[in-house]
Amino acid sequence: MVATTPRAAVSAWSVNMPTLTTDAIQPQAKITHQDRPGEVAADRDISPSSWHEKAVMHGQVELATYERTPDLIGLTDREVWDIITKREPVEYRKVPNIICNAGLNIMLSALLWTFVEDQNTMMGNLFSPSWCAPIMGCVGDGTQAVSDTVTALQNPNWWAPVMAAGITNGSAGIDGSITFSFLFPPSSSITPPPGQLVTDLNVTEAGIFLNSAFVTGNDIYTNFGPGPGGALFNYTSDGGAVYVNQGAYQLLTLITTFSFGNF
Fold first, then answer.
1. Cα first-last separation, the chain
2. Beta-carbon neighbour count of residue 127 at 10 Å?
3. pLDDT tens digit string along 217-255?
4. Which alpha helices (H) appear in 42-100, and where do they start and end?
5. 3-state DSSP call for residue 174?
6. Element (H, E) at 197
7. pTM
8. Sign of CA dihedral 135, 88, 241, 33
9. Under DSSP, is residue 75 helix (H, G, I), strand (E, B) or coil?
10. pLDDT, tens digit (0-9, with 9 covering 90-100), for 160-182
11. What span, in angstroms and rounded, lies between the C-alpha atoms of 78 and 261?
């Protein structure tokens, strides 16, 4: 029997592995890009040591007003939308927003359900079916401060169901996004509640609500007041500063875009 010399334990990770310097382990690769329209370009560190911190969610709100021309009278809401969004708006603003906890929690529950629906029974039925719909857009003229704890607009004026939606797939270096759009009629097209006059609306706040009490499938829903409510998902306000002015005979659109990814 030939005597052998015991071998020292060797980590599989150290076999045939080159000796790496600190610079090689953590290359400071950076990418310069325009974050979003209207924002300044920024350098972002995308080195491996920071990847686990880069999964983010962004949002923005676009508000625009359009003249209600005679050719729009008698058309369906969707037909009106398709026409006016190809026209030049009277006023247009793109503003940042904040994601609110109430709606965020609803979205997380709905997202979880889509992942585990097929195995929920095996898990002991731990989760209940959850969805984000119905979704409602709302604009108002309140002056409250922006916070992730806000649950409602301070002074809501208009409510509308989602009119259009879309998705942009993520790609190399570009986040994916989803967009929800809402159409609000001119105040001259409805009879206001007793004691209120048909007038212009200075839009100073906006947001969208998930799990609204709105009856899916209805046309434009308008209401001076609390409306169908729901869980506020995003909110924007600038302390009472006017974003756009909706004339009594103008249409108003609200478009919200949410981006998900690493950039």
1. 64
2. 15
3. 554 555 555 678 899 999 999 989 999 999 988 999 999
4. 77-84
5. strand
6. none
7. 0.76
8. positive
9. coil
10. 889 899 999 999 888 999 999 99
11. 31
